[in-house]
Q: What sequence folds into this?
């Protein structure tokens, strides 16, 4: 997670322009950067629904619904997929970082 002044600036920007916040999340999802997504989702949640607890990978869908959003899926292009092992490693890394407060 980033330092507080940056967080405050981003939260204010997302409150002022919710469409930008949604576009940013979509762009990050399209890039496939799970860590960046989980960095920005709490900031966007704090801006658009401050009563919602900070999201975790396990509460992702509920968090998105509280923001009036839904997750949609589409097939990847050839060469964009990752293996189940790579996905599991990525999820374990995120969980470890959350446990130590990174």
A:
């Amino acid at each position: 997670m980033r330092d507080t002044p940056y967080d405050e600036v981003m939260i204010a920007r997302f409150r002022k322009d919710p469409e930008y916040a949604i576009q940013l999340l979509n762009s990050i999802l399209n890039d496939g950067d799970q860590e960046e997504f989980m960095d920005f989702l709490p900031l966007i949640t704090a801006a658009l629904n401050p009563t919602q607890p900070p999201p975790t990978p396990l509460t992702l869908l509920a968090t998105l619904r509280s923001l009036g959003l839904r997750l949609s899926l589409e097939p990847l292009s050839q060469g964009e997929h990752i293996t189940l092992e790579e996905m599991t490693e990525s999820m374990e890394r995120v969980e470890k970082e959350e446990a130590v407060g990174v």
About this structure: The first helix runs from residue 4 to 16. The two ends are 6 Å apart (CA to CA). The chain is about 65% helix and 0% strand. Helices lie at 4-16, 18-31, 34-48, 60-66, 84-100.
